[in-house]
Structures are given as C-alpha cells and as structure tokens.
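Sequence, please.
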C-alpha cells in the first residue's frame, strides 16, 4: 500500500509538469494518461480522504465515526466512478479507432458511372453503406411524411437496403400544424429529424426531390437542392410524396397563405404579428387597422376550422393582454365555405356544434359561398343566390383540399392506366397501376385505391358461390359469397356486413333464394356506394404500416423460398413464379374516428353516428390522442412542455 502511495505521489509531480506541457500544446495525452490525470486531480482535490484511503501510516484503531464511514463511502464511490469512466474512455477510444480503420480500409469506388435514359450519374453505392447492405434488395422510399415513416417503423432491419429520399430531413406532425401558427406550440416541437427515425433499421437518407421515375430501368431521378441530378436504382419503390393544396386556378391565389409545411406555419405566425404591430402604430388609419386585423379562411374543412379556432384563442388569451384594447374590437375572423356547413365531412351534429360555437365566439361563418378572385387587399366571393360580395383582409389562408404534386403528375402522365387527375391509382394491395411486376407502390395523399367494379365479376361470383349448381343462391351460399367478396375487397366490408338484411332486401320475389338478376342489382348498388378513402394521416399511417409489414413478409418468403398459401383474398394470376404480393391479404382500412379542435373545445366523430363534443374534457382527449401518436418520446415531451408553458406564461408574441 505504501509503495502504491509513493508511486502516486511521484506521478503527481510528473503529471504536474505534463499538465503544463499539455496546456502549452507540446504533448498529446493518451486515454490511459487521461485516466492517471483523473486520479491525480482526485488526489489534489481530496488529499486527506485519498491519503487516508491509501496510507498505512496512520491506522485508526478506534471504531469508525459516522463521518469517517461516510468519507469512506465517498472515496469508494468516487473510485468506482473514476474506474468506470477510465474503462469507458479507453473502450470508446478503441472503438473510435476501429471505426476509423474500418472506414479507411473500405474501398469506395472513386466515381459513379453514368447511365439511364438521360445519361445521369447512377448512385449504385452510397457513402454510408456497409458490407451488410450488399446483395439485399434495394428499397427506395420517397417522402418523409406519415406514409413513409409508417413504412419505416414497420420494416425489419436487415431485410432490405433501404434509402429514404425527401427534400425535408424531418417528419412533420401535420395535425398540430395549426397550433404552430399562433405559437401555442413551437415549430420544432412538431418535427422529428428523419435520421433519428431511420437509425434503428440502418436505412440511408438522401435530401433530394424525386423528379421522375424510369419504370423499365428501375431508376428514380433525384434532384438535390444544389448539385447535379442523379439516378438512384431500386428493386422496390414506395411513393409517399403527399400532395399540394388545390387552388382551382383562382385568380390572385398568390396573395394567399397555405398551411402545408412548417415554413407556412412560420410565415403565418410572422404575418399575424406583423399585422398586429402595424395596426398598433399611431399613424395607421382606422380603415387600415380594420383591414390588417381581418383574417379570412377559405375552406371550412378541419384545417381551416382549426386555424380559425387557434386564432380565436390567441386573440382572447394573449392579444387582449398585450395589445391596445381598442384593437380587440377591430379583429374579425371569417370562414368562407363552399358547402352548406363547415366540417361537412363530419357528422351533422358536429358541424352544428362547431357553427354554434363559432357564432358565440364571433367568428363569421359564411357558407354556400365560392371565392372568385383574390385582390391584394380584398377577396371577392359569390353567394349561392348569385350575389357577389367583397371582403377586405389582412391575411387569407387557403385550405380547400388537395392536388397532385409535380412528381405524381409526371408519373401519372407516363402511365397508360393512370387516368385520375387527383392522385395515383393503385390496386387494393397499394401497387401502382400500370407497373406489371409489383415493384412500385403508392401510399398516402398521393394515391387512391381503385374501387372494384363488382358487377363486372357477377358471373364469376355467382358460379363460384352456387355450390349445388341449381342456378340460385341459398342463404348459406350467399353468406359465403359475401364473406369472400369482403375479404378480397376490404373496402366493401361495411356494405356486406349484415348478410341477413341484404339477403332479405334483395330477395325481391321472396323465394328464399337470390337469383342472378337480384345479385346483379345488389352488386350495382354496392359499386355506387363505394367511395375513395379520405386524404388523412390516419389512412397514410395505416397504409404505411401495412406496406412495411408486407415488404417484410415478401423478403422473408423470397429468402426462405416458402410462399404463403393461396386463399380467398389471393389474386388469380398466370405468372410463372409466385408473386408473394398476390398471395398476401389486401389493404384494409379501419376508421378510428376524426378529431378537430374548435377553440377551447374539441369534437370527435367515431363514425356510424357515434360522436363526442365538449369543452376541456374533449380538448384533453384530443391532446392525449396526439401525444400518443407522436413518433418519438422527444416530441411527446416537447409538446407537453409547450402546452404547460402556454398555460403558465401565455404564447410568445415576439416576432422574428
Ligand atoms: C394543417 C394540416 C392538418 C392536418 N390535420 C390532420 C388531422 O388532424 N388528422 C389527419 O388524419 N390528417 C390530417 N391532415 C392530413 C395529413 O397530414 C395528410 O393526410 C398526411 O400527411 C398524408 O401523409 P403522406 O405521407 O401521404 O404525405 P405527407 O405527410 O404530406 O408527406 C409527404 C412527404 O413527401 C415529401 N416529398 C414531397 N415531394 C417529394 C418529392 N418529389 N420527392 C421526395 N419527397 C417528396 C415531403 O417533403 C413530405 O416529407 C392534416 C394536414 C394538414 C396540412
């Protein structure tokens, strides 16, 4: 023990000199040097405790006191911490060295080759690839929104060489975007960096825009913000690029704000504050004040309604506290809606609740009105009865629905089978129509599932179902058929659920059986009732999850050469090799309800007439649903903090 102590004391002297040299930059310390330095500095800091611990000179024969016991514990704990830190530092150093060596020993091909229809560089290797990526099928996902992230979250590591491509390197939680326009939530609280989301499955990320796809060559053309365009090869491609706002070619649309991106929210927040500050100037005329403080929302869907509600909260909770009171009386919020009611896709009770609430809050709801043009300072709209009206504004938000983005438009124009002008058409397995080999999928807002024409398959359905071949379907045969159709086409599920009621209502001649004409009438009616799925985060999320899981199954089946058995939902194909995709179940959407915030109150429509409308209790439900839907613990914590911060201190009204 004594020997150890004298060694340490001697090394303290040496380290003192070394420390000075280090400060003057003359020597570099290794990890083990750093560890010795830590011990030495410990000796400097706690000379008595340390000496007592290592010395044999003053052995205390009395019973240790409480303080000496405590001192001993502190010394043991510190030594353990120092020891662990030292080991960690050494291991870390070794790991970093090994990583560096690995990187250096890796031979990246010095340059990319050119190819494809436009003779661009072909990125057949990426700079962060490693050996485990080689020989895996290449899965390229376009987009970093709801659809893309849900695919990523469902994918298993090691099945594919995955590359995600998007011009934005974050995921945006769109349902809370209206809250970011007035500072209820900070913009960063609703964003999650993509790289942190893809790390778990060792995927790669490229910040670029996809501008085209070459179906035959299996190449995606990418355009980075700066730098030359290039091709990225794929074996499987998922298109999840979302949509743009539909503008109907309205004249003067450039004067409007949109609410699709985080920058839109930032711009709106700044504009609102700009208008309030300008209106507070003594030189601003009363007419100009009125105009600046007139906020118009075009579109009475959930986004428009939630923005109006957030604006109202901001006015009543913050503007009144900080701005001249006189301005409060000048503020006007209006919603211009083309339909009879706002929130018209929700249950009628909900529309009614929201309209009454807005009326009480002095939000001007103008229904049955179509915007004709937007001048720099006023908007022109036409009422259903033909009357044309004008309205001054300081800010207009345009939120009336969705349209194709440039990539989806390009793809749609390329493919014969794509005739829809709003979205890419897929089959019910989410495969892009017009691509024969199940290599391209489209999900989310940029796509729509083609509804089956049941009536076109009438004969096949009837013959298959008529087991006893007597030319009519008994109730049992009909029930089996109804199940089979709803398994193969899940979108028909809700229409075929009550087989007994259907059977009774289409058995027109009350024969106790369904004949061919009766089945024909039923299928025609169902075809008419089928609608497209809404463009919501809920749909994009479920599609992404379904696709991610399916891609895992496809890779596993190909690796093991074991294919799933054919069943009710299998598609009959004459392909020589089994297409696993045809054997797996189609996509089936389950609606869990729609929520909307209406200003210190919220509404929920769970479908089939079940609704919930209320004040703060509904707001807490709304918040807890969104908290649970977060893609990371980080954003969950930030949201909770923002809501608490707003409650305690109000919204931040600084403008920058
Ligand atoms: C303000 C607002 C509020 C909403 N509220 C709700 C709600 O409460 N509930 C609900 O269910 N839905 C809501 N929605 C709708 C929901 O956000 C969309 O339905 C959902 O985002 C669709 O997901 P997506 O993956 O298809 O597209 P997005 O989430 O829009 O993602 C598209 C992604 O593709 C990227 N991209 C675009 N072009 C390219 C390209 N050329 N190449 C590569 N990447 C590209 C984009 O950067 C983006 O990352 C709201 C939408 C908005 C705007």
């Amino acid at each position: 023990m004594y020997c150890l102590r004298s060694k340490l004391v001697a090394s303290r002297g040496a380290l003192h000199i070394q420390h000075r040299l280090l400060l003057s930059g003359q020597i570099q310390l290794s990890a083990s040097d750093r560890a010795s330095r830590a011990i030495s500095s410990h000796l400097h800091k706690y000379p008595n405790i340390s000496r007592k611990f290592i010395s044999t000179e003053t052995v205390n024969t009395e019973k240790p006191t409480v303080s000496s016991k405590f001192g001993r514990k502190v010394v043991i704990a510190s030594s353990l911490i120092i020891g662990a830190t030292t080991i960690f530092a050494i291991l870390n150093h070794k790991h970093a060295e090994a990583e560096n060596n690995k990187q250096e020993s890796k031979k990246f091909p010095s340059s990319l080759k050119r190819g494809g229809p436009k003779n661009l560089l072909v990125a057949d290797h990426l700079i962060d690839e490693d050996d485990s990526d080689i020989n895996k099928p290449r899965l390229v996902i376009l987009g970093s929104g709801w659809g893309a992230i849900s695919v990523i979250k469902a994918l298993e590591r090691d099945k594919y060489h995955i590359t995600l491509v998007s011009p934005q390197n974050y995921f945006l939680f769109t349902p809370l975007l209206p809250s970011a326009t007035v500072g209820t939530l900070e913009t960063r609280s609703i964003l999650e960096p993509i790289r942190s989301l893809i790390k778990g499955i060792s995927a790669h990320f490229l910040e670029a825009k996809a501008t085209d796809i070459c179906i035959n060559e299996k190449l995606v053309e990418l355009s980075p913000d700066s730098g030359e365009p290039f091709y990225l090869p794929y074996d499987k491609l998922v298109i999840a690029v979302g949509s743009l706002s539909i503008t109907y070619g309205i004249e003067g649309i450039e004067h409007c704000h949109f609410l699709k991106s985080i920058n839109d929210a930032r711009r709106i927040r700044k504009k609102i504050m700009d208008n309030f500050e300008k209106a507070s100037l003594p030189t601003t005329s009363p007419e100009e004040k009125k105009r600046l403080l007139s906020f118009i929302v075009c579109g009475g869907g959930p986004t428009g309604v939630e923005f109006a509600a957030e604006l109202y909260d901001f006015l009543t909770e913050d503007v009144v506290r900080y701005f001249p009171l006189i301005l409060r009386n000048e503020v006007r919020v209006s919603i211009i809606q083309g339909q009879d009611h706002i929130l018209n896709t929700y249950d009628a009770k909900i529309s009614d609740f929201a309209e009454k609430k807005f009326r009480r809050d002095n939000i001007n709801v103008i229904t049955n009105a179509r915007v004709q043009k937007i001048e720099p300072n006023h908007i022109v709209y036409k009422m259903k009865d033909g009357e044309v009206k004008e309205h001054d504004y300081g800010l207009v938000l345009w939120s009336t629905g969705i349209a194709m983005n440039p990539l989806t438009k390009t793809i749609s124009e390329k493919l014969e089978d794509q005739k829809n002008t709003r979205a890419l058409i897929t089959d019910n397995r989410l495969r892009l129509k017009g691509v024969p080999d199940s290599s391209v999928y489209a999900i989310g807002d940029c796509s729509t599932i083609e509804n089956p024409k049941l009536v076109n398959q009438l004969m096949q359905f009837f013959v298959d179902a008529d087991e006893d071949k007597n030319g009519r379907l008994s109730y049992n045969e009909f029930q089996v058929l109804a199940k089979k159709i709803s398994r193969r086409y899940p979108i028909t599920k809700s229409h075929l659920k009550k087989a007994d009621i259907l059977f009774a209502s289409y058995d027109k001649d009350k024969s106790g059986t369904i004949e061919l004409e009766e089945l024909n009438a039923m299928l025609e009616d169902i075809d008419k009732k089928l609608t497209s799925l809404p463009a919501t985060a809920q749909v994009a999320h479920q599609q992404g999850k379904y696709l991610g899981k399916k891609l895992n199954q496809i890779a596993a089946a190909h690796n093991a050469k074991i294919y799933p058995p054919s069943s009710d939902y299998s598609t009959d194909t004459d392909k020589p090799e089994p297409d696993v995709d045809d054997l797996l179940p189609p996509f089936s959407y389950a609606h869990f309800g729609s929520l909307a915030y209406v200003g210190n109150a919220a509404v929920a429509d769970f479908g089939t007439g079940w609704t919930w409308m209320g004040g703060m209790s509904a707001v807490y439900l709304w918040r807890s649903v969104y908290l649970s839907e977060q893609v990371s613990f980080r954003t969950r914590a930030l949201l909770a903090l923002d809501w608490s911060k707003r409650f305690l201190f109000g919204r931040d009204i600084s403008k920058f």
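Residues 66-105 form the longest helix (40 residues).
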